[in-house]
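Q: Convert this sequence to structure tokens.
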Amino acid sequence: MSEPLRGILLDMDGVLYVGDKPVPGAAEAVAWCRQAGIPLRFLTNTTSRPRAALVEKLARFGIEATEAEILTPPVVARAWLAEHVEGPVALFVPEATRAEFSGLPQLADPAAGGAGAVVLGDLGEGWDYPTLNTAFRLLMAEPPPPLVALGLTRYWKAPDGLRLDVGPFVRALEYASGREAVVLGKPARPFFQAALDQLGLPAAQVLMIGDDIRGDVGAAQAAGLRAALVRTGKFRPSDLEGDIRPDAVLDSLADLPAWWQKNA
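A:
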């Protein structure tokens, strides 16, 4: 018999909101969790904005959250870099996200070489051939610096349709350089473990809720959590026809309270 559920991890984009539009009923579901005393954390592979901006965005949708409750790849990556890397890091992240790496030496001119690590986030339309090739050249230096990926999300749903995320660019650099990335976001197990450590709960007692059948559901299950898939965000009916079987399928996060009371 499964252990009783006691905590929740919530993906953000696609679950709480889609682009700049809130998912109907999501704010009420989060409020219900807090009233019920269910500890939760917000997980996101978003690297285009710092946690302070995410707190403000959630507030606009009527969702209360603190920076400490939001776990992003830069937060985990900064701790890993501080422990494992000497020398300046080359950050391929949006300008606003650089604040999450404050206190670490940063390479002022990546084209000049000399990186202690190469960190890849979601640059969106900032990715072009010169930028990708600069990262490649840094990785080919001797001694070779580690390639640190802020997640491996394949794509996300923007208001104008699907867009590539950081994963394809990480894979391109892995292939070209022959290096394997250190992944410090979803779907890597250490990212989920960092969230579990914050909750102080074992994996078997925590439910992950997301809209990505692989990056959210499959990855969480591989880390020992139970996982629910919502039919919002990037969800596609074909997600339910593959080899990954969610522990629950919800039309949206608005259905969480009723499901939890019946199944947790």
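The mean pLDDT is 93.
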